[in-house]
Each structure stands twice: as structure tokens, then as C-alpha cells.
Design a protein that fits this description.
Strand order of the largest sheet: 1-2-3
Bound molecules: zinc ion
Oligomer: single chain
Structural class: alpha+beta
Largest sheet: 3 strands, antiparallel
Helix content: 25-40%
Length: 81
């Protein structure tokens, strides 16, 4: 995931932010459990492992294992900022 996104691109993409989590300021990753076969891929999110949020250098649990649910949560957070 690129650490830097030009501002002009952000402006053009805000309409799709709910569909594409990389365009919001909060990003999601999966913290796979030890026995999960996908434990090398933080972006794999169909295995039911806990979802974590990250914004800047802060990380916290989304308190759900459901990626769609977590996306909804961060879209609310990002609207409120
Ligand atoms: Zn997993």
C-alpha cells in the first residue's frame, strides 16, 4: 500500500471511499489467528479472523471479524473526523 497519495487523487476518489478502504484515512487489515492458512496476507479478509483498524500510527481492533462491518465502522469514523 502506498504511504503517500497525491492530494489530487484523493479528491477524485472520495466518492468511492466506502467501496475501497485504501482511499479513507483509516485502513483495515486482518490480524490472522495462529492456525489460519492466510496468516501471511493481511489483506485477506474472508477467513473470519479479527479485523484491525489503522490510522496514522494508531492501531485498534475493529471489534468484529466481519470486513464489511469494519468498513462501515471506519466510514462512520472518517466522516466524523
Ligand atoms: Zn485469517
Amino acid at each position: 500500500m502506498p504511504a503517500y497519495t497525491p492530494r489530487t487523487q484523493v479528491a477524485q476518489r472520495t466518492r468511492n471511499q466506502v467501496l475501497d478502504s485504501t482511499q479513507t484515512s483509516t485502513t483495515l487489515s486482518t490480524r490472522h489467528l495462529g492456525k489460519c492458512p492466510h496468516d501471511k496476507d493481511r489483506n485477506y479478509h474472508r477467513c473470519g479472523c479479527p479485523v484491525w483498524c489503522q490510522r496514522n500510527r494508531k492501531r485498534w481492533s475493529a471489534e468484529t471479524n466481519d470486513w464489511a462491518e469494519a468498513l462501515k465502522l471506519v466510514s462512520i469514523l472518517d466522516v466524523r473526523k
